[in-house]
Amino acid sequence: MKKGLLTALFIIFAGVLAACGSSSSEGDKDSKVITVGATPTPHAEILEEAKPLLKEKGYELKIKNFTDYKLINKALATKDLDANYFQHVPYLEQEMKENKDYDLVNVGAVHLEPFGIYSKKYKSLKDLPDGAKIIMSNNAAEQGRMLAMLENAGLIKLKSGIEKVDATVKDITENKKNLKIKNDVAPEMTAKAYEANEADAVFINVNYAIQNKLNPKTDSIELESPKDNPYANIIAVRKGDEDSDKVKALMEVLRSDDIKKFIDKKYKGSVISVSE
């Protein structure tokens, strides 16, 4: 009887040890594995370059690729990731407003992707004719960003005093050329809309432009200015993890001179490294 009881206790104890030993590295601040979610271009490419640099610091970097923006913060919030790398602060803030259970923080910017607008018919925004159709993405956090480019080109005027990051098409007070703005296209579909010639001009995020063999610096008819730009791409983590050793190591590498040189050489101005 005693022997059976001891055997049962041993099995239970072994099971507990096995469960502890098999816990996932995601969400474990002390783990030497860093799992980062990212979109393929340029984020995952930059992370691949960071792998050997992190290995020198004693960490293994695992990269999980995503093509749908909406899944990446969810994966971080549910502890499937240690960090993610794909978004800027306005997008993160919008996601936090829409998902009250997300408790995520920005731990620093790595690079800027200047937004571009592309056309198969016209050489500049000023060449657009009356009634021209323009496609924007349905990303609410970037509506103001795209509208500001149209305003800077003199095509529209936005409501006086409106913060550009908060502007929507409803804030357009003047549209002399009667531009037809379509803003219900998913970001990943904008490059396809451009290739299919579905509009006179199409806004395309840099990552999707590069994935579709477009060079933002030479192929766009207008490229966003990096000056005082709030849309730098950041590393986000769960609140409470920002001071962990693994996150500090990740940021040190991504802001290193080696990574800055890689970004400058590979993307030739289409992606711009930032230090803060």
From TrEMBL:
GO cellular component assignments: membrane
Lipidated residue numbers (S-diacylglycerol cysteine): C20
Gene3D superfamilies assigned to the protein according to its UniProt record, in alphabetical order: Periplasmic binding protein-like II (3.40.190.10)
UniProt keywords, alphabetically: Lipoprotein, Membrane, Palmitate, Signal
Signal peptide range: 1-18
Domain of life from the UniProt record: Bacteria
Keyword Coiled coil found: no
The keyword Signal appears for this protein: yes
Membrane topology, from the record: Lipid-anchor
UniProt main location, coarse: membrane
Subcellular localization, as worded in the UniProt entry: Membrane
InterPro entries cross-referenced by the UniProt entry: Lipoprotein_NlpA
Similarity annotation: Belongs to the nlpA lipoprotein family.
Protein name per its UniProtKB record: Lipoprotein
